[in-house]
Amino acid sequence: MQYRRIGRSGLQLSELSLGSWVTYHNQVDSAAAREMMAAAFDAGVNFFDNAEVYALGRSEVVMGEALKALKWPRLNYVVSTKFFWGLEREGQTVNRKDTLNRKYLTQAIDGSLKRMGLDFIDLVYCHRPDPHTPIEETVWAMSDMINRGKALYWGTSEWSADEIRAAWNIAERHHLHKPIVEQPQYHLFHRKRVEQEYKRLYEDIGLGLTTWSPLASGLLTGKYRNGVPPDSRGARQDMSFLVKGLTDAARNAAVNQLELIATELGCSLSQLAIAWAAHNPRVSSVITGASNLSQLQSNLDAVKVIAQLTPEVMVRIEQISSPLAS
Which of 56, 79, 182, 208 has the fewest CB atoms within 10 Å, counting from its CB? Predict the structure, then answer.
């Protein structure tokens, strides 16, 4: 496992990390989380990603219980969470849902700290942009969160390049803590934001990336070539919005071609896809997910494939995937 700095910051993350979206609480309880986090840590993973909204706070509880049981020195691992969606789905949702205003952010961090049993969170993200709150208000609130010692660094997730630059400029102008990282979706079929839209930000402001969904929600495992398996993520009612993309005929045909390359390299299709995302030097860490130990170990073995992605192999992958990428 190699370690990469987040942009121009001094914080180093493992090139592959472990996230909790979909799995924690829903498929992975505290005992399973502890087992997988221990295995990931032993493999060199030092970054564990979460969000307030995952399983409506219960994902943070599961990760917090695992961290308490593992008793790692606090300097040895990095934990993140994200704010925007809130925990409320019914009843009183004003200032509690879909916002980045100061009141919500100030109270949201306290909730996450309590659920995770931590004194501070290393990385906090604004999970989506908020068109109804001035960016300046959000920047001040995030910077104050760091000044109060409740977080160490902050960033954004799925913000546009213009929104990120605006936030950075406000922080620069007022001598506040700047956003150092963006967390975008990034995989073989979803690339333009990372490779084109953010291109100027890497040099101009030193933006780092922790990317999610390297397997395109399972499409790049090959499991959706013949429809939606009953035990897959796509079969879940709350994931029904993914089905159209997962069963896309053209992309699944490309998956068949990509699998031939994986076979030549002696790796799985999943490992090839994860390695491809990690091959991008702008990516600080690729967030992987797993519902069981064997799946986790297979995903982490993608680190062995990165060096095999020669310019010739990358050209072949590009020819197959690029025409279908958004």
Answer: 56
d(CA 44, CA 275): 16
What average pLDDT does range 234-250 have in this prediction? 69
Question: What are the angstrom distances between the C-alpha of 126 and each of 71, 179, 203, 215?
Answer: 28, 10, 22, 23
Q: pLDDT tens digit string along 244-256? A: 678 888 999 999 9
121 pLDDT tier (thresholds 50, 70, 90): very high
Q: Is 20:191 a contact under the CB 8 Å cutoff?
A: no
User: In this predicted structure, what is the pLDDT of residue 24?
Assistant: 80
* Residue pair 62/19 in contact by the 8 Å Cβ criterion: no
Is the overall model pTM greater than 0.85, yes or no?
A: yes
The answer to whether residue 28 scores a pLDDT higher than 90 is no
CA nearest 66: which of 40, 100, 101? 40
Residue tagged active-site, from 54, 125, 186, 198: 54
What does the domain layout of the chain look like in residue ranges?
3-217+280-291
Instruction: Answer yes or no: 125 catalytic.
Output: no
3-state secondary structure of 4: strand
Return the H-helix or E-strand segment holding 315.
Answer: helix 311-321
Side-chain half-sphere CA neighbours of 294 within 13 A: 0
CATH code that applies to domain 3-217+280-291 = 3.20.20.100
pLDDT at residue 36, rounded to an integer: 95
d(CA 253, CA 142): 44
Q: Which long-range contacts (CB under 8 A, 24 or more apart) does 93-98 make?
A: 98/130
Contact 35/65 with Cβ under 8 angstroms? no
Residues 6 or more apart whose Cβ sits within 8 Å of residue 52: 60, 81, 82, 83, 85, 86, 87, 108, 111, 112, 127
Q: What are phi and psi of 156, to 5 degrees?
A: -130, 165
